[in-house]
Hints:
The complex is a heterodimer of chains A (about 250) and B (about 80). Chain A is an alpha/beta fold and about 250 residues long. In chain A, about 40% of the residues lie in helices and about 15% in strands. Chain A has helices at about 25-35, 50-60, 75-90, 115-140, 160-180, 210-215, 220-235; strands at about 15-20, 40-45, 65-70, 95-100, 145-150, 185-195, 245. A seven-stranded parallel sheet of chain A has the order 3-2-1-4-5-6-7, sandwiched between helices. By secondary structure, chain B is mostly helical. Chain B has four helices and no strands. The chains are: A alpha/beta (about 250), B mainly alpha (about 80). The interface of A and B includes residues 140 and 181 of A.
Amino acid sequence: MSEPESAAAWPPAGCALVTGGSRGIGAAVALALAADGWPVAVNYNAGAQAAGEVVAAIEQAGGRAVAVQGDVADPQAPERVFAQAEEQLGAPVLALVNNAGITRDNLAPSLADEEWDAVIATNLSGAFRFTRRALKGMMRARTGRIVNIASVSALRANAGQSNYGAAKAGLIQFTRTVAVEVARRGVTVNAVAPGFIATDMTSALIGPDLLAAIPARRAGSTEEVAACVRFLVSRQASYVTGAVLTVDGGLGA
Amino acid sequence: MSAVTKEQVQERVVEALASFGPDAGDITPESTFEELDIDSLDLVELAQIVEDEYGVVLKGEDMKELKTVGEAVELITERAN
């Protein structure tokens, strides 16, 4: 990394983009970054109303935010989403949180092509294309923060999630590799690997047996994940890159 | 779009390369990227600048063939016109 960032203004003159920001971990991340002074683009796919509520909550707290529709699995989405976010917020994207994710759980012998492809397209290829688009501006600005939301399923096997685990494991190695490529431009790239977090996506999974397997004996909250993302996006994290921060109540320890 | 002169491209390329580290005064058409310590990431960024400003798309294979600043300026000028 070229320069320590301790003396620079923070947040820099840019905005933050959170994919899948309308609910769950993404919504908590959008709120946390806005609280740190970032103008935030809340990307959503189908949840226009929920995204609007996140924007309203940010504005009510004195922050700035806009909702931007776009399916991250669509190869054309990054160009459109970045253009809208940057135009409406009047600043380049200098913080990107690749959070949008889906599950299509099934045991591998009966996993359908569509279930495999959809999970790879959203959770891995989408993050790649949004990262590629973000790096253009970040490299020129000589600063930037990218945080990829991975999963404990990338680090330990979770039966029924071979597609999801493969995509998230791929996302972690993508994170590390890109971190090495762009480190000397002052851009950091890190991953957060949440364990079982209470969200709509995991509500069917979390039962007594699962909770007994977690050393903390409880599911995590979206705010506990957002706090880690907030740190990785902060000025204080300027020398942290290529790291994977697990937030799992000790599950992977 | 009006024609871009070689001098204009040269000036912009030197400015871009100087932002990657070397002194502008050390950058001549004969300078090789190697002696200027310009690496592959720098060339990717140069390609982005060139695309934004002149609409010239330089692919990885184009960049690999370029050894000197002068060769890059020639190629960009030729493609831009």
